[in-house]
Write a structure and sequence with these properties.
The chain is an alpha+beta fold and 250 residues long. The chain has helices spanning 25-37, 75-87, 92-95, 112-122, 170-180, 213-221, 224-236; strands at residues 7-8, 21-23, 43-49, 52-60, 64-66, 71-73, 98-103, 127-134, 139-145, 151-154, 157-159, 181-183, 185-191, 196-201, 241-242, 247-249.
Length: 250
């Protein structure tokens, strides 16, 4: 029986000189499950084997706070991931070089925040890769070499059916999602005596301003087109607002 060929899922076509980022069907299915489980961005790391650093065999998440435009990993959770993977005899290039995250819209192009994060977090690595998948399955994969003459290469992306792979583990994925993915929810609390309202997140309180400072700063750093996209999303997606409970899902 002829083995199934790799399925190309990006606009970048493979050639003899260009490396290819490949996902096992298991890793790809898990990534799509996490992307489609909620309405926010989600992020994690691509796990590879020592002999093939561009073949992602698993997608792993850590505890993170997420919104529709951002992902913030908890520092202790990342440290725990390093300990776990090192205990499994893996090297950092197998679990901490490929940054994977989703965009809830239809564009996989990196935002200014994505670029800042990639440079700040992965800029000191000898190499790193940023992978983004959008809601419509369009993808973006950029390999960055940060030493020597330095270079950045756009990669084609494939699902590799030519190797053995594990079956789906939905119950396990569901458990991991609930443990690690924490959407930031802002509860509007109305003080009738003062006839004013404040908005507080579910994980900590904010007095002023009504939105977390980090979110406002991130919004201000966006390009005008990115800010307009967020405004348009809020205007056409009533599910982001729950007037009965006074909650806004960002």
């Amino acid at each position: 029986m002829k083995p199934m060929e790799n399925k190309i899922i990006s606009k970048w076509q493979a050639d003899e000189k260009r490396p290819v980022l490949r996902f096992s069907p298991y890793a790809w299915a898990k990534l799509l499950y996490f992307r489609d489980k909620g309405r926010t961005e989600i992020g994690g790391f691509g796990i590879t084997e020592a002999g093939d650093l561009l073949h992602i065999t698993d997608f792993i998440t850590v505890k993170q706070n997420v919104t529709s435009i951002s992902v913030s990993f908890e520092d202790n959770a990342v440290a725990d991931l390093f300990d776990q993977q090192v205990d499994m005899a893996k090297r950092p290039e197998q679990f901490a070089r490929i940054w994977v995250h989703s965009h809830p819209g239809d564009s996989p192009e990196p935002s200014l925040t994505d670029e800042d994060t990639f440079k700040r977090v992965f800029g000191s690595c000898d190499w790193a890769l940023m992978f983004i998948i959008a809601k419509d399955d369009s993808v973006y994969a950029r390999l960055s070499f940060n030493t020597g003459p330095k270079a950045q290469i756009m990669l084609p992306v494939r699902i590799d059916f030519t190797r053995e792979f594990n079956g789906t583990e939905v119950a396990f994925w569901e458990k991991e999602f609930k443990e690690n993915i924490q959407p930031i929810v802002f509860n509007s609390i109305i003080d009738k005596k003062k006839e004013s309202s404040t908005i507080q997140p579910s994980i900590c309180e904010f007095d002023e301003p009504i939105l977390p400072t980090e979110w406002l700063e991130e919004f201000e750093r966006m390009e005008p087109a990115e800010r307009q996209f967020i405004i348009d999303e809020l205007s056409v997606r009533p599910e982001l607002w729950n007037q009965d409970e006074g909650v806004m899902y960002i």
